[in-house]
Amino acid sequence: MTTAPRNRGTEILRGLGALLLFGVLLIGFPIGLHTVAGSPVPDRLPTWDELTATLMSPDTDQHLFLGAVRLLGWTAWLAFVLATCIETIGHLAGRPTPSLPRPARPLQLLVRDMVATATLVFSATAALTTSASAAHTITAAAPQASTTEGVEQTADASVVNGRKPLVGNAAPMGERPDAPGRETYTVQQDDTLWGIADDTYGSGHLYPEIFKASRPLDQPPGIPALTDPEKLYPGQRLRLPEIQTDAKATEEPNRSTLPEPADTPNTPRPSQERDSSGTPPTSTEPTGHSTTAPSSPVPRHAEPSPDRPSTPTPRPAHETDDSFAITLRSGSYIGFGLATALSIALAATRLHRRRRHAAPGSSDPTAVPAPDPATSKPVAEARKAHLDTYADRDVPIPSDAELVAQDIATPVPEHITLGTRAGRPVILPLAGLSLGLAGDAAPATARAVATELLAKSHRDRVELLIPRPDAEELYPTSDITAHTPPGLTITPTLNAALTHLETEILRRARLLETTDQPDLTSLRATDPAEPLPVLLLIGSVTEQAAPTLQAILGLGRRYGIGALILGPWPTGTTVHLNTDATVHHAIGTNAGTLTGARLFNLTTADADAMLQTLHTATGADPAAPPSQTNDTHTAAATPEPASRPEPDFVPPPRPTSEERPRPARLQVLGPVTLYTADGPVTTGLRRSARDLLAYLALHPNGITRDQGVGALWPDHNPDTATTQFNTAISNIRKVLRTATDLREPMFVLHTTGRYRLDPHLIDVDLWNLTTILNTAKHAITDTDRITALTPVADLYTADFADNLTHDWAEAHREYLRRTATDALTHLAQFQRDDHPDRALATLEQAIHLDPYAEPLYRTIMQLQLDLGHPDAAHRTYRLLTTRLADLDTEPNDQTHQLLNELQHRRAN
């Protein structure tokens, strides 16, 4: 999508026309009216008799008419002057203006458009007349940074602790406006509960205490009540309660105030080995995440502490130095916001893949489903990091459908997390963002920001504007300019992007006035169907375009517009980055927030792999990996072949009825759980041992130590991983011996260099299911196949190991689900001729396992039509339409054609 640039001369003429019209109406009109009708101030007040005589006598000399014209003319002019003052002040302040009475509303709308046009287009004149001074300012930015390195500067001397006091609520320089001891505090512009708690108590984690204490407060007239900790309005009153804090309290959050994990899927927690009762073990095994104390979910308005940390160094993913970011094996440093968005995109990709999965044909009822394409390494790492935030807190891991449902309810992003500082996120608002990136890591940081916003852009949440030259610089190895992903508009030039922003400001200003809404958030709530995404310009800015962009960003906060500049940006904030994207120096309003932070950054190879996932998440067929420029990129971006069980996989034989029951049972369909005769094993089993049990269940013929290490601890060094493996085996044996009261058995056999579960002591539900599927595969007659496939619905009780986040577990989970669904579909085919009602019930069971498989719905609809139930078939179509709406799509042409046939039969 591109936008053609408009002529700047036309913009200048429009601005001059608006200014000329203002001059005529404000100056020329009263002069003409005074000439024609006289002064609005009478020489003397008429008496009642004179007034009565004038109204009762004929107006032969037009005196009464001229008096009426004079009165109406001066009244209209005064109304125009009042509207001009109100709209000009509101426009310059970037705030909503009060609405005049209804008779004056059309005049107010006219004045509002005139003020917006004159202000916006006047910037075009400034771009042509002040290029020399702009060039001097931009070129002088780099020398200034070198001479003032290490010194924090602010754009306004009245800013105290990163906050600018409101008029009438300003504090003396050096004194915190919300210092301890003040009972109440008046909210200022850009305040957040996190920042207020951090300044008042030294810990932002205590923001819920302020929220609880302040909710009952009566607010001043016209100020909204405090109902949401993430939404503060200037002028609101807060109560700052007395809180006893100590060092431990400020370092570790009050866990009773943390929201449930389901409400904050992108909030990570540290990973520790735990037994099934939740008790940490006594040994100190290396874990998959940092063991630093987690922070509470940060409000979107949160500001990190100004304490400057030491410059961080890149670390492997399992040694990340904070709880809000991960370092991929490729060296990319990304936040959990991007990891969550990629996890949701991968979930949508799988659901679309299920939707397209064709029902198996009767010609080959024993066909083995092909494996799904493997997930690229950076996306798989990001998804695992996201899902681990649930597993680390012993919370059920959401399914793909649940992740997509969470995404549907996600609002338009108001803020962006740019990186971390002292283990805490660095957050800035998107609306009004005015940030320049300078240094070698600037493209990598801009690439990370752009990729995260593109991952969140669907459903009209975000729109990125990137000029073509900058897009080719950010994604040099991708075909992004030829296949533009949703949410991205690539303009031919920077001027085209600026014109797009100007047009959008005018459109949004008219929408706000037409709907009588104070801001975009209210407008989105009033009319959710109106696309009002956050607009972010990413690109380099020329000297001539700098004044125009500055004027646009002045209105950006109100209209949801921001800019991320590739290069110095003296009119906003400029950060200078080291090679690892650490901010070693910053100048501007947010300098204190950004100095010392490590910003997110993304390699081109990882970005290409992520864009491919975002492409398939829309329902598009997977395309070939983009061409790379060197072998390193190819290795990082090309996914490895997917793995699945061998077609001839045969589990150990099941015991006959005469044999004694096995002392232990392993459930891997659903949460991985060990059972004995006394019930589930709830204590002692470590998480690593649980994961190893599931991996051993997938390989009844055994695995080598290297296989187990590579599957469960791919990020650990070999010595540490080997210790982990040995400890897990020891833990399995110890727990099973204790639970079964059997001291001699090994339970996990080790022969010829391979480890495997002892089939004579441990029964595995997956093996029972696989035995049934193998029996059906080798059956000769349809009767034998029906007999073999009938127990599938009872044996496949849940997805494979749904509490594991490993890539191999997810791959086999998809494979096994598809295998079970196809088995039920085969069974329905065999039942269809003799028992159509049973076939219909079997297909409904298959739909329960795979609620997005569109071919299954068509099969059910056709069977319902054959049975003479067109109404039931129509309900099935509506159910399919509802479920596909979760994927932002609708039934395909083949299904719609079947619906037309259904409607034709109903009509006859």
TrEMBL record:
Molecular function GO terms recorded: DNA binding
UniProt keyword list: DNA-binding, Membrane, Transmembrane, Transmembrane helix
InterPro entries: AfsR-DnrI-RedD_regulator (IPR051677), BTAD (IPR005158), LysM (IPR018392), LysM_dom_sf (IPR036779), OmpR/PhoB-type_DNA-bd (IPR001867), P-loop_NTPase (IPR027417), Sig_transdc_resp-reg_C-effctor (IPR016032), TPR-like_helical_dom_sf (IPR011990)
Keyword Membrane attributed: yes
Transit peptide as UniProt keyword: no
Cited Gene3D superfamilies: LysM domain, P-loop containing nucleotide triphosphate hydrolases, Tetratricopeptide repeat domain, Winged helix-like DNA-binding domain superfamily/Winged helix DNA-binding domain
Biased composition range(s): Polar residues: 626-635
UniProt-annotated stretches for the region Disordered: 164-183, 244-320, 355-380, 618-663
PROSITE patterns linked: LYSM
Chain segments annotated as transmembrane: 12-33, 71-93, 114-135
Biased composition (Pro residues): 642-655
Ranges for domain LysM: 183-240
Comp. bias (Low complexity): 277-292, 362-376
Family of this protein: Belongs to the AfsR/DnrI/RedD regulatory family.
Designated name of the protein: DNA-binding SARP family transcriptional activator/LysM repeat protein
Species annotation: Actinomadura algeriensis
